[in-house]
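ARCHIVE RECORD
Type: protein–small molecule complex
Small molecule: NAP
Source of inputs: curated submission
Record status: active
Notes field left blank by submitter.
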Amino acid sequence: MRRLLPLPEPGSPARPGPGDPGLAQDDLDAAYAVPALLPGTAHVRANFVASADGAAEVSGRSGALGGPADRWVFRTLRWLADVVVVGAGTARTEDYGPAIVPPERREARVAAGLAPVPPIAVISGSMELDPTARLFDAEVRPLLLTRASAPADRVAALREVADVVVCGDERVELKAALAELVARGLPRVLTEGGPLLHAQLAGAGLLDELCLTVAPLLGGPGHLGIVAGLPWPSARAMELAHLLEEDGTLFLRYRLTREQ
Ligand SMILES: NC(=O)c1ccc[n+]([C@@H]2O[C@H](COP(=O)([O-])OP(=O)(O)OC[C@H]3O[C@@H](n4cnc5c(N)ncnc54)[C@H](OP(=O)(O)O)[C@@H]3O)[C@@H](O)[C@H]2O)c1
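STRUCTURE (tokenized, with ligand):
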């Protein structure tokens, strides 16, 4: 993988040349480092992969879009996060499992003040989640962020396998959900979507960053993109923080202005 932007200074040792081995894990960690946080605040980063024409799924799953380099960035972003947040649609469709962190990364996380393994937090109003799903076969108990009006029987069954947190009456209020994560010492939030959750976070000004992998593929018409749901009153501006590349796949890191 190589960095295309920002360009290193001319003559800088970081400027790539012929035979350059490319970025190493340390370089990727530095490229995606989470900024220092003020106490009581969260940093919310979204990570998506899409085809060049904006498809975020092919045959209902995202797996066909990402190659080895995308999986490397995906893992790295997890290793830099306190918690991985997903919508229940993605957890169900992608059959989410716990985050996997190798021993050396556990040590690095602990040295940096993080827990060895980030929990997965699922946002669900229906609580239609199978308590025997592999998500719940985890070394760190998952969090389920739900609403007060969720079906009581499903909530009771899921309390056996996860920590259930109520964040709103009729729907999960995302600002309240983020405050709950901060209160639990999980301020570095990585959300892996899906499109419905992402659109709400970005639309409400609750997103600090979008990490977008653009795969050199055309998905064709009729696919979900990286946002879904209700339209916004206006488009949101972003600032490009970096652009990396491997084998024609682009890795864009954008910053957004947080509004809340
Ligand atoms: N390309 C990528 O990087 C990428 C990433 C993620 C997902 N995807 C794709 O996206 C698709 C899934 O999309 P999706 O839009 O269904 O997924 P989603 O955003 O992950 O899930 C939507 C679900 O999350 C829950 N939810 C979200 N916001 C809520 C709120 N404010 N209050 C209460 N519940 C809330 C609801 O769950 P309940 O129904 O349980 O109430 C809702 O049905 C899959 O095809 C997946 O492969 C692609």
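CURATOR ANNOTATION: The radius of gyration is 19 Å.
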